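pinned: reference chain
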Amino acid sequence: MAASGFTDLREKLKSMTPHRDDYKPKVSDYSNGRKRKYHDSEEDYSDYEEQREVEAQKVQDGIRQVNIFSSVDCAHIEAKIDDVVSKAEKGLYREHTVDRAPLRNKYFFGEGYTYGAQLEKRGPGQERLYSKGEVDDIPDWVHELVIKKLVESRVIPEGFVNSAVINDYQPGGCIVSHVDPIHIFERPIVSVSFFSDSALCFGCKFQFKPIRVSEPVLFLPVRRGSVTVLSGYAADEITHCIRPQDIKERRAVIILRKTRSDAPRLETKALSATDPPAATPERPRILKPKRSHRKADPDAAHRPRVLEMDKEENRRSVILPEHRRKRGSSSENYWRRSHEASDSYDDTDDNANSARKVKMRRH
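pinned: its structure tokens
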């Protein structure tokens, strides 16, 4: 080493990598609570933030919010929504009018369409309108209390709406990121919020088990009675969603849209001349089985499961005398089967059968 002019190996290594003198490790990979990903420098990260701000502005430009429904108007409309829920519980609507999911029920009027798990082949562009008449007509109160007021306020032109959907959310309910099918619906998309305040988020990504939602590009507060109109970039170029954490109380939204004249539709098979007049046309078997109509019970998974046989055995263990409980013959099936066995066998086998106990399996 002396020949090369270095008496210390550390000095030689330092001379071979002079650029490392200016290297400073990053103090933290976090900024404002967000983890940095795929950014090697402060310049790259600032570019990323700038792009998000530009996109957020594009989204904002495609959103219009107005307040035209008073508290009195909201209360009147909310009572009508409760009537819809009551009629659905009584089975008074057509099959495809009501679609149930955990913590969210959807009610189609005027036009309904297949989406999500109902599709045999999933993905954007696969949605289809139901055949005419497979969902109920738009209720008169929607025309009188909601659509008429939007037309008077010049939010939408008269005759624009032919599809009305009511989404009824329970606390913790959500709808995953999506774009309203462009091949199904014209723009704009109009929604009116009821029962409580919430928020609409744009540009989120969902992950499940457990459910997690990424930071939105734009967070849009949505107040009770407010009208939100989406068009342009906000409607077509970025997804929107409702996150579980933004539904703290029951919330309902009425979505008003117009279907495209060339929107694809599930067609029914025409009746042949030999079919009876009362026969119902068979719809193509494209859809998967409908979801269960049972209401979601978030606490059910945490309750201990008690079998009916356990309930019976526990009940009899309390009412039977002490000496019979010790024999372990408290099951009703034991007494019934022992009696039947004694009648069907010869006297020589009575002792063996009387001592036999029927063991109950717990599955």
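why pinned: The first helix runs from residue 9 to 16. The radius of gyration is 33 Å.
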